Amino acid sequence: MTEQQLLQTYRETVHPLYGYLAKRTGGNRALTEDIVQEAYLRALESWNPRTVPESPLAWLKRVARNLLIDYLRQKRREQSPAGDPDPAGGRQTAGDPFESLEIFLAVTSLGRKKARILEAFYYDGLSVREIAAEMAISERAVEGSLRRARQALKSLLPHSEPKGGEDA
User: For residue range 12-26, what is the model confidence (pLDDT) as tens digits?
Assistant: First the structure.
């Protein structure tokens, strides 16, 4: 890949890649920028004239998604004392900046199909019709898959504490 081709690919992919990742990081600008940079570094290391992927943006999105998942898993290990998989004791505090990242990590743990449908609907803003067309399945199948994926995600997420009216 020539320098000119690489620059053109960067210009065509940087904004869509940044937007894709920003939705998954909950708008964490520093984290998004770090992962975007790392994805491009990996492209520079991996691509040569014979190995440029057919869809550079799809390749970059996959690498960026994997980098984010790795980051979140590492962060979880660092924040969690040995033997305690949930440093918050099963609760998220209001306004916790890590909450949206935790939700994304939970989504990715659901399995490929459920994660793909939830990400397409909630992170990418695709309609049921668009998801059905992209996945080559019926709209009804998408609706059913979304319902099952939401239930699976709900079972993974910590339950919120009731506000007020608690018995002492």
Answer: 999 999 999 999 998
